[in-house]
Write a structure and sequence with these properties.
Length: 518
């Protein structure tokens, strides 16, 4: 959703892998920014009146047929432009410079010599400096009017500028933290060259979104599917603050939530909660258990859960009748990962993006969080006054406990894993360890083993505990939980959860493991 803000930077996406970082670094400078595909017509971009434009990297070669491109007019609008890697090559190519295959491609940390220390873009950057490179092509000759401001051993034009027109091209990636002075370079561009004041704050985003949603929705009706997760909750609160009772939230309880979670969601969004909206809770537990009965293969379980979810939602939507808008809690990484909307290659399908209900009768989709990252969504949630407990909750997979139960899912197994998980979380909390692990939970293995309890033979299930620390959820390490805590948790689970007679701790890192079990 386009925001009306005083100062905005537009990032034009040519499909690079680091594009989300570009947007993030701009916002870290308190300058609002939006990302659009290179296919977006220039007239629409000009309409948004940006203070500056950044062209990202991308997989193409500018001289290939069909390569991603832009209207050369972009460089003549009097708006400062910074091209990064592919974006830099494209700028030079379109303005008459020469781009070709580099005799030596560069990948990784590379030493860059600064040739013009007084350049507004490179202010404060020492020479030499380490930058992150990732390219096969290079600019062998800059376009007329450009001055080379940096080079490397293999790259005659590592950076160039045409100061009077406000055009800047860099071959390396300032958005990547391996570029030592990358943050400074981006700051020099947005705050210095573009003249942004850096006054944007997340509160503004909330206020602007609410105003934009009101304008868009008018007196229309809005439907939102609530999963109880952070993204859909924040989207729902934003909508409720914008349009109140014109919003109906449908919460499908698939019976695979953590202990008491369904009731917690209802307490926040239901009739006794603080928000003005219509809330419908569908208790579809039995239906999901039935659909899952006899199914053991993880991918199949995921598909069944996804499919049933959409069906239940559709059935509810039919009861409500035609609506004008459907809200999705899509966030930026969903857009990028699913390869829809973002320009980079698809990495995985995503329930928020891929699983759009086909038969819901609506005119348009509203995705108010589409430009934000997870931590930005959280910070927005806190600004909107959503309880911290809800906003800061751990990541929880869409298929829920369905994929934390190895093998067939049954109501009885759901109960076991809910109880065990709740005990584990309580004990982690009271040991003050909840912050040391990014994610921790109990799962149920499909292993049964012989034990003895009260002099009697048992033949029961093994629970596995998992706790990992991770920065980005791409890699993770098992947390070294003190033995005392593990013993206490084990004792409680075996005493309190019937049909569990063994507790295991998973010390596998990711890779080779994943965080979830299935
Ligand atoms: N595809 C271009 C090259 O190989 C640009 C790469 C990039 O933007 N990272 O040089």
């Amino acid at each position: 959703m386009e925001q009306t803000v005083q100062e905005k930077i537009i990032v034009i996406d040519f499909g690079g892998q680091y594009n989300q970082l570009v947007a993030r670094r701009v916002r870290e400078n308190h300058v609002y920014c939006e990302i659009y595909s290179w296919r977006k017509p220039l007239a629409e971009i000009r309409e948004m009146n940006p203070k500056g434009i950044i062209l990202t990297g991308g997989p193409n070669s500018v001289f290939e047929k069909g390569a991603a491109a832009c209207d050369p007019e972009l460089f003549r609008m009097g708006i400062p432009v910074l091209g990064l890697c592919y974006g830099a090559q494209l700028m030079m190519h379109l303005l008459g410079g020469t781009v070709g295959h580099a005799p030596e491609r560069e990948y990784g940390k590379t030493e860059v010599q600064i040739d013009k220390r007084s350049s507004g873009l490179l202010r404060g950057v020492p020479s030499p400096t380490v930058c992150w490179m990732s390219h096969n092509d290079y600019i062998s000759r800059p376009a007329d009017g450009f001055e080379v401001i940096a080079h490397t051993a293999n790259c005659p034009v590592a950076a160039a500028e045409c100061e009077e027109k406000g055009l800047y091209a860099v071959q390396f990636h300032p958005e990547v933290l391996h570029t030592e002075y990358g943050k400074d370079i981006l700051r020099n561009f947005v705050r210095g060259i573009c003249g942004c004041s850096g006054s944007w704050r997340m509160e503004d985003f909330a206020g602007n979104s609410i105003a934009a949603i009101r304008r868009q929705v008018g007196d229309g009706r809005v439907l939102c599917g609530l999963s109880g997760g952070v993204d859909s909750s924040v989207a729902a609160v934003l909508l409720s603050q914008a349009v109140g009772r014109q919003l109906t939230c449908v919460f499908v309880d698939h019976g695979l939530l953590r202990k008491n979670e369904g009731d917690e969601v209802e307490a926040v969004f239901g009739p006794h909660g603080p928000y003005e909206l219509n809330f419908v809770r569908v208790n579809a537990q039995e239906r999901f258990y039935r659909a899952l009965s006899g199914v053991t293969e993880p991918e199949e379980k995921r598909k069944i859960i996804g499919r049933e979810f959409i069906r239940v939602f559709e059935e509810e939507a039919k009861k409500i009748g035609a609506v004008d808008y459907l809200v999705q809690g899509t966030i930026y990484p969903d857009v990028v990962e699913s390869g829809m909307g973002g320009e980079s290659a698809a990495i995985k399908s995503h329930h928020n993006v891929g699983g759009l209900p086909d038969y819901v009768d609506f005119k348009e989709i509203i995705e108010p969080l589409r430009n934000l990252f997870k931590d930005e969504v959280r910070s927005l949630g806190l600004h909107l006054g959503i309880p911290e407990k809800l906003v800061m909750r751990q990541p929880f997979p869409g298929p829920g406990l369905g994929i934390r139960i190895v093998g067939e899912v049954t109501a009885e197994k759901v109960r076991m894993v809910q109880e065990a998980d709740s005990i584990f979380r309580q004990e982690m909390d009271s040991a003050g360890l909840s912050r040391t692990a990014g994610q921790y939970f109990a799962a149920l293995t499909n292993m049964r083993s012989v034990g003895v309890m009260g002099d009697e033979r048992t033949y029961d299930y093994a629970v596995v505990l998992r706790a990992v620390s991770t920065v980005d959820f791409m890699t993770a390490d098992a947390v070294e939980i003190p033995y005392e805590v593990l013993k206490r948790v084990t004792g409680r689970i075996i005493n309190e959860v019937s049909h569990v007679n063994r507790v295991l701790y998973d010390v596998t890192s990711k890779p080779p493991g994943t965080i979830e079990l299935e």
